[in-house]
Amino acid sequence: MFTAFINGIILTGEETIEGSALLIEDKQIRSVTDPRSLPPGIRIIDCNGNFIAPGLIDLQIAGGGGYLFSETPTPAAMKAIADAIVRTGTTGFLIAIPTNTFEVYNKVTSVAAENPMPAVLGFHFEGPYISPQRRGAHFLSCIRKPDRDELDSLLKDAGGTIRMMTVAPEVCTRDIIECLNNHGVIAAAGHSNATFSEAVEGFGWGIRTTTHLFNAMSQLHHRDPGLPGAAFETDNIMASIIADGIHVDYNMVSIAKKIMKERLFLVSDAVEESSQGTNPHRRQKDRFTLPDGTLSGSVLSMLTAVRNCVRHVGIEMDEALRMASLYPARLMGLSDRGKIAAGFRADLVLFDSDFNVSTVVTDGEVIEINNL
Questions:
Q1: Of the residues 15, 95, 234, 290, which has the fewest C-beta atoms closer than 10 A?
Q2: Residue 345 Cα distances to 306, 312, 334, 339, 341, angstroms
Q3: Which phi and psi (to 5°) does residue 57 adopt?
Q4: Are residues 20 and 148 in the same domain?
């Protein structure tokens, strides 16, 4: 089935196109073409001058739709989470699992393996091999000393559902990072008290990115630049950042962007309210906290993070969108996501100048949001 989107401003990830139609067939983008050349009898969606962008990709979101997945690892919860996140314009995401018990780890991976969903890319395990000094909202009782045999067994049992793991470089050995790489898991440095030299050593072992830059990590200091400085100085290392103005001041987002350029990408680090388990999040007006007030997550959607980058950081719209689509797709090796181009997945988000979502297309399925 063909569907054409007309009267939209198409932000492809490489250029901005006006006056053309975007044509998709089933689950795939076919072309950007002249509206007068569209085949007869196809479905037409009038975008009414709104923007059309690639579906957004969030590599760290713990829940949605009323569920925190680590607390309620069921097929129904996964579907509710996916449905809620997709409606915000995010068409691909990793479910973040905070430092937890191996019983929970095994449960969440088995549910995902048995219930595949187009938008769920897998899991981002934050821990358990992290620094107690930089644990943030993670509970001390679940943090473990790295063990190669234990990790190898966990990854084998997960059956490829774990796609990223946050570790503290200073508590790991080369063997641990190589184990992650051998299983196709992206190693991310975070929840870490690493010195500059410890972080650089970890990058040399195969760590490829950092988790929520500046948060829950050694600080950028003039006597030891720490993990942020090491990320700045290592040309092949990427970094995620939470652009809500709370986790990171917008001026610091701007500084990081100027230094890292295409290596910096957005995550939401959003959670859901929870009263059980090891992460009892409480929703405040503009953030989530633990009962003691510790910052524990954001209330962001990825499109809101894009809006914040445009309005508060001064990043151009097309570049802010790349930070939320193309750049995370590159890190994940997703060669058919993150751009609007022939042969790519039909994953799209349509939104107006106030960043209100009107329509989402996920794996070719058109979902009308009607927020405009």
A1: 15
A2: 21, 31, 10, 9, 9
A3: -130, 120
A4: no
**pLDDT for 134:** 87
Those residues whose C-beta lies under 8 Å from the C-beta of residue 165, and which sit 6 or more positions away, are 124, 125, 126, 129, 180, 185, 186, 187, 188
In angstroms, rounded to a whole number, what is the distance separating the alpha carbons of residues 358 and 242? Answer: 24
Question: Distance between CA atoms of 125 and 218, rounded to whole angstroms?
Answer: 20
Model confidence over 155-189: pLDDT tens digits? 999 999 999 999 999 999 999 999 999 999 999 99
Q: Enumerate residues 6+ apart whose C-beta is below 8 A from 201.
A: 169
Residues 269-275: what's their mean pLDDT? 72
Tell whether the model's pLDDT for residue 372 goes beyond 50: no
Q: How confident is the model at residue 313 (pLDDT cuts 50, 70, 90)?
A: very high
- Give the single-character DSSP code of 49: T
What is the Cα–Cα distance from 6 to 360, expressed in whole angstroms?
A: 15
* pLDDT for residue 277: 55
Q: Which of 131-140, 171-180, 217-226 has the lowest mean pLDDT?
A: 131-140
Domain interval for residue 182: 56-332
Report the CATH number that the domain containing residue 109 is assigned in CATH: 3.20.20.140
Same domain, 107 and 162: yes
At 138 the pLDDT is 74
Q: Which two tokens stand for residue 134?
A: 């930089």
* Residue with token string 């063997």: 175
Cβ 212 vs Cβ 181: under 8 Å = no
Higher pLDDT, 41 or 240: 240
The number of domains in the chain is 2
In terms of domains, do 149 and 273 share one?
yes
The structure tokens listed for 35 are: 């509206």
For residues 283 and 157, state if they share a domain: yes
Are 81 and 197 members of one domain? yes
Residues 6+ away with beta carbon under 8 Å from 198: 169, 170
Max Cα separation, the chain? 67
Q: Are 321 and 352 members of one domain?
A: no
Paired with 209 in beta bridges are 188, 238
Q: Is the peptide bond before 228 cis (omega within 30 degrees of 0)?
A: no
Catalytic residue IDs: 269
Same domain, 38 and 78: no
